[in-house]
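Input (structure):
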């Protein structure tokens, strides 16, 4: 079996020229397979800072934009195809993506791949507590170590063609 990846873009928000839903879906499928997850349904919303700030304020009581939010679900349902684990929803701000890439001194392509892995790990029970990736510092937290290891496994994947 495979996984079900549902990708959407915030209403009234124009995705950048590089945005390719099928490439992103294939990448997330590969990440899930590499991590050993099967039969999952994941929803990914790409949005702007204003939208993710509202989500952050409503669900985490933090009134600021952020790069990514993950909302774990964990319910199982059955349809005509199979039984699925509704792993949850991921929201990624495409406004914050280039800011993160600049901070970490990486390409936007690498940062997008990192955020997608990060979200997948959160939806599958991983948590990094107060630990975060810092520019030039190797992570020590289990989730962040796995995230960076997985990212290296996909170093040749291009989701965003650099300018």
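Output (sequence):
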């Amino acid at each position: 079996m495979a996984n079900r990846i549902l990708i959407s873009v915030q209403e009234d928000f124009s995705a950048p020229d590089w945005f390719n839903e099928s490439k992103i879906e294939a990448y997330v499928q590969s990440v899930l397979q590499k991590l050993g997850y099967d039969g999952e349904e994941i929803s990914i919303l790409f949005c702007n800072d204003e939208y993710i700030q509202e989500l952050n304020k409503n669900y985490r009581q933090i009134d600021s934009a952020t790069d990514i939010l993950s909302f774990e679900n964990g319910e199982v349902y059955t349809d005509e195809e199979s039984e699925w684990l509704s792993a949850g929803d991921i929201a990624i701000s495409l406004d914050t993506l280039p800011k993160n890439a600049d901070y970490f001194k990486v390409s936007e392509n690498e940062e997008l791949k990192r955020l997608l892995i990060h979200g997948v790990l959160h939806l599958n029970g991983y948590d990094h507590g107060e630990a975060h990736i810092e520019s030039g510092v190797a992570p020590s937290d289990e989730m962040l170590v796995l995230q960076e290891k997985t990212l290296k496994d996909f170093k040749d994947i291009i989701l965003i063609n650099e300018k």
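Notes: DSSP finds five helices and four strands in the chain. Strands lie at 4-9, 40-47, 68-78, 83-93.
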